[in-house]
Amino acid sequence: MKLTVIIVSYNVKHYIEQCLDSLYRALQGIEAEIYVVDNYSKDNSVEYLQQRFTDVKFIACNHNLGFARANNLAINRTESDYILLLNPDTIVGENVIKDSLAFMDSHDEAGGLGVQMLKCNGEKALESRRGLPTPLTAFYKMCGLCAKYPKNKKFGKYYMGYLPWDEQGQIEVISGAYCFLRREAVKQAGALDEDFFMYGEDIDLSYRILKKGYTNWYLPIKILHYKGESTQKSSFRYVHVFYDAMLIFFKKHYGNVASWISVPIKLAIYFKAACALLGMIFGRIHKVLGFSHNDNKDIEYLFLVSEKSKELCCNLAHKKGLNFKIKECDEMSNPKGHLTLMHKINKKVCTYVVYDVNAFRYETILNIFSQCPQQNILMGTFNANSRTIITNQEILK
């Protein structure tokens, strides 16, 4: 077997359905298998997905095992040359996996690679390239020097902002959202550390791969990462798990550094966690007191759909009471998508541009959004087969 793709799922059945749809296109002509490890979802994920993807191998856990342990279950059952850890809230372009395989096959020293991850407005996600969070690198990140001097090789090391976005290059940390690994490198470095429940395990594994003499790479090929649809980032549990992971990594790899370095780093981690928790508390109080603004009335939709999908899409939009415009087109008739329709988009409100994925390739949609990212224009998809509209905020079905 050439490749095993592993997706850990938790209560995101429609996002993973979309992810699998894009993955099927990207795996055409490749000897590959797909594992979905479900971490005890309560939304009927396994039954729902099994009916639609009969050749996917499912592992239905009877507890939430966390990201690392769930991935290891599938890793230990497989023997493929390569392993791809893929988040369920992603969309991969049609050529991403082919390009990843071609690179790894021609670079024997490469232990793994990551790709250019896009936010839902087309902006490049900084997490696409990261340096190891050494004590000093972590300190520069937490005190704001990384944000102030993002292209400085010393202060900006955390996100490696000095690297060009459109060129392949060596990085230190591969994001777990799209983590393409050489099996032999994983055997030598060891699988994911199960002390990490969620977050930090990708940093730890990347570091151990480097220690075994392999290199990690960034390729300028695009995926969408909704970034966290499988987690509640406004929850107190998220703060605890995230910052606990930072402490686990620090103690594991830098536990013996001088106290004048370790103490400030630990204090900074606790300080950041406390600030995040206070922000959540005040946000909830603000909402309870009725000060939160309801932005639903300020959302518009622009649908770019084929003739076959137009009626289905219109019916769904009317059913959900959406404020929308619709344009009948496809990739052949309108290769630049919504960029040719910017005059129809209200700049004063948030607009979801919803693409018919049977009329436009995923790769084309990602390329269009990456050409002209704007804060108020966000990506959405419509799939006539599932009759579902998906955005970063909602599932309309």
From TrEMBL:
<feature type="domain" description="Glycosyltransferase 2-like">
    <location>
        <begin position="4"/>
        <end position="150"/>
    </location>
</feature>
<protein>
    <submittedName>
        <fullName>Glycosyltransferase family 2 protein</fullName>
    </submittedName>
</protein>
<dbReference type="Pfam" id="PF00535">
    <property type="entry name" value="Glycos_transf_2"/>
</dbReference>
<dbReference type="InterPro" id="IPR029044">
    <property type="entry name" value="Nucleotide-diphossugar_trans"/>
</dbReference>
<dbReference type="InterPro" id="IPR001173">
    <property type="entry name" value="Glyco_trans_2-like"/>
</dbReference>
